[in-house]
Amino acid sequence: MSVMGVTSYGAEKWQIVYFGSYSPKKVDYVILDLFEHSSKDVTRAKAIGAKPVAYFSAHYENWRPDAKSFSLLGSKALGKWKGEKYIRWTSERNKRTMRARLDRAKAMGFWGVDIDNVDGPGGRQYFPWLYAEAKKRGLKVGLKNFVEILPSYGHKVDFFVSEASSKSELTCYAKYKKPTVRMYYGRGASTPSFIYAVRNKQNGNRF
Fold first, then answer.
1. SS3 147
2. Domain 5-204 has what CATH class?
3. pTM of this prediction?
4. Packing angle between helix 92-108 and helix 123-136, nearest 10 degrees?
5. 102-161 pLDDT tens trace
6. Does residue 205 contact residue 198 with C-beta atoms inside 8 Å?
7. 3-state DSSP helix/strand/coil percent for the chain, to nearest 5?
């Protein structure tokens, strides 16, 4: 997956690099992949004044170096993404794996975390657990797409990441006055099924 465009709700500038080499740009926030990028990349981001954010999934991806550390995968595939599955997050082994990812983000010097797919099965219980674990490590936490949990966590999280089909979903986040970025996809990149689900509901707004 490659991001084809980024729009900030406010005055902040964002750079998102999921894979490939990181070429620093003068921005306020840069989202880098937790496994694809290095501590040196994090240091480079900080050197230009950017807040580095670690991207990783809250669920299983078979190509990740820690894939074998998961257990009790859910029966439901994660959309149409090949090699991805939801996990049973209450498994102690799966919790250890996710704690290890947060430890890695902290050790690498990331400012915060962009945890993907938190709006999956059991998300209303899973996201609060991830949020608490990240905060224990002094990491800032973003909320990605999971607008249904905004009444409880909109004021708690530190930023928002949206893969909405239009700017209309950003109206959900306005009252929280937090940094917000909308990612949109173009030719050459797969469009997440989430985009269509949002677009077909009330004015592009699931909440």
1. helix
2. alpha beta
3. 0.88
4. 40
5. 999 999 999 999 999 998 889 999 999 999 999 999 999 999 989 889 999 999 999 999
6. yes
7. 35, 25, 45
